[in-house]
Amino acid sequence: MMQSFVSMGWTTILWVTVGFTMCFGHDVGGIIGNGQYLFLHGITTHTAFASSAGIPMLVFVAYQMMFAIITPALITGAFADRVNFKAYMIFLTVWLLFVYFPLVHMVWGGGILHRLGVLAGGIVVHASAGFAALAAVFFVGKRKVKSTGPHSIPLVALGTALLWFGWYGFNAGSELRVDAITANAFLNTDVAASFAAITWLILAIIFEKRPKILGMLTGAVAGLATITPAAGYVSVGVAMLIGVVASLAGYAAITYKNRKSWDDALDVWGVHGVGGYIGILLLGLFASKAVDPGGANGLLFGNAAFFVKEFVAVTGTVIYAFLFTYVALWLINKITPVRVPEEAEIDGLDAFEFDEEAYV
After folding, report:
1. Residue 259 class from Cβ within 10 Å (0-12 exposed, 13-18 middle, 19+ buried)?
2. Which of the four, 4, 21, 190, 307, has the lowest number of CB atoms within 10 Å?
């Protein structure tokens, strides 16, 4: 919880000081924005967001800030119980500055990928965080203390419910207006999550011989992550298919991860990394201007170039996010140990790091 809440606090500070301008300032080399909005300079209660009439710029600042907060926080689920808090704070800072902020500018802020016609926030959020998580798993290594499973399935269910509800704002809100495309993105978000949840439940019955609520909840999140890039650009029928594919791919990825004994505690790579990557490819296949005239036609509608652009963009992103994360952790480890001592893992990080306990 500390890692998530400190992401909210520290990322907000970075966002309003340098992050927003790095993402949405005037373009510099197609990679990053300039310093016009440093400390939100020039943005007042009267400043309108240029791309959408009627929305104040401050609303857009806050909306985008929440994406910035959640993206690096996703990574923390992969290395639970193992990472030094000081090292995490350094990692959080450099990952935002050198991975997240440039990706936002390139895709959403008028940078090179935006100009090439690449669509999909899944590149910026899920694919990047998911493969960064995998790099962290490889660098940090397995936990010394064997996991006994979820601490509290009711809390997992509550968290999934909050995610599912909040996801409507992420996907449907991305158009920054309310119209038929907004409604389509909203419905597609729910449809994909629902089809994915039930598909995962069926897979659990087939392979684990009983229905598992934890699996169903995991499937729902996989569906949400996978539909996100395509939510506003595909039909409801395609969203059904995306939900099924999300669970099939996520279940296979997690099964493979378990077989290889990779200690990704919350399956960030299998759910968000694989889901985000596949979601981009499915967007490249199924996007249709009949659904969103402002979008693009995918491969199945005669536009092979769009599919190629999506594939190259997401593949380049996951390679960069993976390599940067691994190298960054290696360098941070030269400054301060990334991993806590074994005795700290045994006693628990609550006591070792913070001298606090969740339950007394």
Report:
1. exposed
2. 4
